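Task: sequence design from structure.
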């Protein structure tokens, strides 16, 4: 994972801890963190399996 994406995900996860699960924005932040991580992984796997270009790079 690129350093910048990893840093953003770590900051978002820390913000989730600070906010707590009762905060109205918690679910949205959790969904965004999960989506970014999943999209990056999908692009990474695509590149590993011979795709000509990684769209998530």
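Answer:
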């Amino acid at each position: 994972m690129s350093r910048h994406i990893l840093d953003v995900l770590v900051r978002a996860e820390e913000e989730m801890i600070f906010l707590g699960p009762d905060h109205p924005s918690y679910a949205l932040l959790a969904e965004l963190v999960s989506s970014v991580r999943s999209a990056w992984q999908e692009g990474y796997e695509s590149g590993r399996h011979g795709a000509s270009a990684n769209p998530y790079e």
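The chain has two helices and no strands.
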